Amino acid sequence: xxxxxxxxxxxxxxxxxxxxxxxxxxNIHAHQLRHSKASHWLEYGMNxxxxxxxxxxxxxxxxxxxxxxxxxxxxxxxxxxxxxxxxKVSKKWKNxxxxxxxxxxxxxxxx
Length: 111
Known about the structure:
This protein is mainly alpha-helical. It contains 6 helices and no strands. Helix 3 crosses helix 4 (60-66). The chain is elongated.
């Protein structure tokens, strides 16, 4: 579908929706839907890195600017990122006793 065709369909459905709810904007465009979806993902607790990936952004800063968020929401999103200290925590399944199989409670196969 071309961009023109998408916009035409959006405007058509926006007019119908606006008749039922005057809060629906008449001049809606696809980019507004991306903004809204990204904001909702953030509100529902999705990690900002995941949102950035889903939107196809190469830089996290692009996503942060792209989403209209409050300072509190931004701080909450940034808190979901891995802390440098977390990287130094040893993995529980890499304990030398049996690795991931031991950690998961799976008995190793006999050779």
